[in-house]
Protein backbone atom coordinates (compact mmCIF):
# COMPACT_ATOMS: atom_id res chain seq x y z
CA UNK A 1 0.00 0.00 0.00
CA UNK A 2 1.28 3.49 -0.77
CA UNK A 3 2.43 5.85 1.93
CA UNK A 4 1.36 9.48 2.00
CA UNK A 5 4.95 10.33 1.04
CA UNK A 6 4.65 8.05 -2.02
CA UNK A 7 1.51 9.91 -3.09
CA UNK A 8 3.08 13.35 -2.70
CA UNK A 9 6.23 12.18 -4.53
CA UNK A 10 4.07 10.83 -7.39
CA UNK A 11 2.26 14.18 -7.60
CA UNK A 12 5.54 16.10 -7.60
CA UNK A 13 6.70 14.10 -10.64
CA UNK A 14 3.97 15.94 -12.57
CA UNK A 15 5.21 19.43 -11.66
CA UNK A 16 5.97 21.30 -14.87
CA UNK A 17 3.67 19.11 -16.98
CA UNK A 18 1.76 21.43 -19.33
CA UNK A 19 -1.99 21.76 -18.93
CA UNK A 20 -3.91 19.67 -21.44
CA UNK A 21 -7.67 19.22 -21.09
CA UNK A 22 -8.44 15.54 -20.39
CA UNK A 23 -4.74 14.64 -20.53
CA UNK A 24 -3.21 12.37 -17.90
CA UNK A 25 0.48 11.88 -18.75
CA UNK A 26 3.39 13.30 -16.76
CA UNK A 27 5.56 15.51 -18.92
CA UNK A 28 3.17 15.37 -21.89
CA UNK A 29 0.03 17.04 -20.55
CA UNK A 30 -2.70 16.75 -17.95
CA UNK A 31 -5.54 18.59 -16.32
CA UNK A 32 -6.42 18.45 -12.62
CA UNK A 33 -8.34 15.17 -12.97
CA UNK A 34 -5.57 13.78 -15.17
CA UNK A 35 -3.07 14.52 -12.41
CA UNK A 36 -5.00 12.33 -9.97
CA UNK A 37 -5.61 9.68 -12.64
CA UNK A 38 -1.87 9.56 -13.36
CA UNK A 39 -1.01 9.28 -9.68
CA UNK A 40 -3.53 6.43 -9.39
CA UNK A 41 -1.87 4.58 -12.29
CA UNK A 42 1.58 5.15 -10.75
CA UNK A 43 0.43 3.71 -7.42
CA UNK A 44 -2.09 1.00 -8.34
CA UNK A 45 -1.76 0.21 -12.04
CA UNK A 46 -4.94 0.49 -14.10
CA UNK A 47 -7.44 3.24 -13.38
CA UNK A 48 -10.61 2.05 -11.63
CA UNK A 49 -12.86 3.61 -14.30
CA UNK A 50 -12.73 5.88 -17.32
CA UNK A 51 -14.05 9.38 -16.67
CA UNK A 52 -16.93 10.64 -18.77
CA UNK A 53 -16.32 13.35 -21.34
CA UNK A 54 -16.26 16.68 -19.52
CA UNK A 55 -15.83 20.34 -20.36
CA UNK A 56 -12.97 22.49 -19.08
CA UNK A 57 -15.49 25.00 -17.64
CA UNK A 58 -14.92 25.07 -13.85
CA UNK A 59 -17.93 27.40 -13.51
CA UNK A 60 -20.34 24.84 -14.97
CA UNK A 61 -23.69 24.84 -13.18
CA UNK A 62 -26.25 22.10 -12.81
CA UNK A 63 -25.67 18.54 -13.78
CA UNK A 64 -24.12 15.73 -11.84
CA UNK A 65 -21.26 16.01 -9.37
CA UNK A 66 -19.13 13.52 -11.32
CA UNK A 67 -15.88 14.20 -9.45
CA UNK A 68 -17.44 13.87 -6.01
CA UNK A 69 -19.31 10.72 -7.03
CA UNK A 70 -16.27 9.04 -8.62
CA UNK A 71 -14.00 9.94 -5.72
CA UNK A 72 -16.60 8.53 -3.33
CA UNK A 73 -16.66 5.25 -5.27
CA UNK A 74 -12.90 4.72 -5.17
CA UNK A 75 -11.50 6.72 -2.25
CA UNK A 76 -12.30 7.22 1.41
CA UNK A 77 -14.05 10.52 2.10
CA UNK A 78 -12.97 12.57 5.07
CA UNK A 79 -13.64 16.06 6.43
CA UNK A 80 -11.62 18.77 4.67
CA UNK A 81 -10.42 19.93 8.09
CA UNK A 82 -8.80 16.51 8.64
CA UNK A 83 -7.07 16.24 5.24
CA UNK A 84 -3.43 15.19 5.37
CA UNK A 85 -0.62 15.34 2.82
CA UNK A 86 -1.40 12.87 0.05
CA UNK A 87 -5.16 13.43 0.24
CA UNK A 88 -7.15 14.79 -2.69
CA UNK A 89 -9.02 18.05 -2.17
CA UNK A 90 -12.05 18.90 -4.32
CA UNK A 91 -13.00 22.53 -4.95
CA UNK A 92 -16.17 24.33 -5.99
CA UNK A 93 -14.82 27.49 -7.60
CA UNK A 94 -18.09 29.36 -8.07
CA UNK A 95 -21.26 29.45 -5.97
CA UNK A 96 -23.90 27.26 -7.59
CA UNK A 97 -21.37 25.51 -9.83
CA UNK A 98 -20.48 21.84 -9.62
CA UNK A 99 -17.28 20.87 -7.79
CA UNK A 100 -14.87 20.58 -10.67
CA UNK A 101 -11.30 21.25 -9.59
CA UNK A 102 -9.05 18.88 -7.66
CA UNK A 103 -5.59 18.98 -6.14
CA UNK A 104 -3.31 16.87 -3.98
CA UNK A 105 -2.48 18.26 -0.55
CA UNK A 106 1.32 18.23 -0.42
CA UNK A 107 1.94 19.95 2.93
CA UNK A 108 -0.39 20.32 5.88
CA UNK A 109 -1.41 23.71 7.21
CA UNK A 110 -0.22 24.90 10.58
CA UNK A 111 -2.82 25.44 13.34
CA UNK A 112 -3.00 29.13 12.34
CA UNK A 113 -3.93 28.11 8.77
CA UNK A 114 -0.57 29.00 7.24
CA UNK A 115 1.88 26.76 5.44
CA UNK A 116 -0.38 24.36 3.56
CA UNK A 117 0.45 23.53 -0.06
CA UNK A 118 -1.34 21.82 -2.95
CA UNK A 119 -0.25 20.38 -6.28
CA UNK A 120 -2.69 20.99 -9.13
CA UNK A 121 -2.95 21.52 -12.88
CA UNK A 122 -4.12 24.97 -13.84
CA UNK A 123 -5.65 25.75 -17.22
CA UNK A 124 -3.45 27.68 -19.65
CA UNK A 125 -0.46 26.90 -17.43
CA UNK A 126 1.07 23.72 -15.99
CA UNK A 127 1.12 21.53 -12.91
CA UNK A 128 2.40 23.57 -9.98
CA UNK A 129 2.85 23.29 -6.24
CA UNK A 130 1.29 26.37 -4.67
CA UNK A 131 0.35 27.73 -1.26
CA UNK A 132 -3.02 26.62 0.06
CA UNK A 133 -4.25 30.18 0.51
CA UNK A 134 -7.40 31.18 2.40
CA UNK A 135 -9.11 31.50 -1.00
CA UNK A 136 -8.39 27.86 -1.81
CA UNK A 137 -9.45 26.75 1.68
CA UNK A 138 -12.79 28.57 1.34
CA UNK A 139 -13.52 26.76 -1.92
CA UNK A 140 -12.58 23.23 -0.73
CA UNK A 141 -15.76 21.15 -0.41
CA UNK A 142 -14.44 17.61 0.07
CA UNK A 143 -11.34 15.58 0.84
CA UNK A 144 -10.58 12.00 -0.10
CA UNK A 145 -7.84 9.54 0.85
CA UNK A 146 -6.27 7.19 -1.67
CA UNK A 147 -7.13 3.56 -0.83
CA UNK A 148 -4.88 2.09 1.84
CA UNK A 149 -2.76 5.24 2.19
CA UNK A 150 -0.52 4.88 5.20
CA UNK A 151 1.46 7.32 7.27
Question: What is the SS-derived class?
Answer: alpha+beta
Strand content: 15-25%
Taking the sheet with the most strands, its summary is: 6 strands, antiparallel
Shape estimate: globular
State Rg: 14 Å
Strand order of the largest sheet: 3-8-4-5-6-7
- Count the helices. How many? 4
Order of helices and strands: HEEHHEEEEEHE
* Unreliable spans: none
The overall pLDDT, averaged over residues, is 94
Quaternary status:
single chain
Distance between the termini: 10 Å
Q: What is the total tally of β strands?
A: 8
Helix residue percentage: 10-25%
Please explain how this structure is put together:
- 25% of the residues lie in helices and 23% in strands.
- The protein is of the alpha+beta class and 151 residues long.
- The strands form 2 sheets. It has a 6-stranded antiparallel β-sheet.
- Strand 1 (24-25) and strand 2 (29-30) form a beta hairpin.
Features:
151 residues; alpha+beta; globular; two-stranded antiparallel ribbon
Secondary structure elements and pairings:
Blueprint: H1 4-12, E1 24-25, E2 29-30, H2 32-44, H3 66-74, E3 76-78, E4 88-91, E5 101-107, E6 117-121, E7 127-131, H4 134-139, E8 140-145
Antiparallel strand pairs: 1-2, 3-8, 4-5, 4-8, 5-6, 6-7
Amino acid sequence: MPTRSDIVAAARRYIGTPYHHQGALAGAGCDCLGLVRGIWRDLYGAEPEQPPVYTPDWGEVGGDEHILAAAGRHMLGRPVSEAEPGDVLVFRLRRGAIAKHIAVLSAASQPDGSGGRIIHAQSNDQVREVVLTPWWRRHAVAAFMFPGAQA
